[in-house]
Amino acid sequence: GGHHLCFVVDDVDQAIAVLRGIPGVKLLGDRKEVAGDSPRVAGNRWTYFLTPWGLLMEIVDRSRVADPPPLVGPADWYAAAENNNTRKEQ
After folding, report:
1. Per residue in 3-58, pLDDT tens?
2. In terms of DSSP bridges, do strands 45-50 and 56-61 run parallel, antiparallel, or are they unpaired?
3. Which residues, 6 or more positions from 5, have their beta carbon under 8 angstroms from its beta carbon?
């Protein structure tokens, strides 16, 4: 049930420059950055865009975050589902 895809990039500003040159891509606002009031992810920079076929996507640059939290992926979803099923059976 997700509503967009997100990709981690090394340099969000450079990625935005590339996206601007792709016909049909629509950037949604300016690049954002997490401020110091959220110390765990301060420095995180991102932006959203629409693909030519309308898919909402996000690019994020975590290179300025001092100690970024681990990324979550399909293996984590599977483990969470297994834990949830085990609790229901008990």
Report:
1. 888 999 999 999 999 999 999 999 999 999 999 898 888 999 999 999 999 999 99
2. antiparallel
3. 55, 56, 57, 58
Nearest to 59 by CA among 72, 50, 68, 67: 50
Q: Which residues pair with 61 in a beta bridge?
A: 45
Q: Which long-range contacts (CB under 8 A, 24 or more apart) does 29-38 make?
A: 34/65
CA–CA gap between residue 50 and residue 59 (Å, rounded): 11
pTM above 0.70, yes or no: yes
- Structural tokens at position 39: 């110390």
Distance, CA of 66 to CA of 52 (rounded, Å): 35
Q: Which residue has 């979803």 as its token pair? A: 77
Per the DSSP assignment, residues forming a β-bridge with 45 are 33, 61
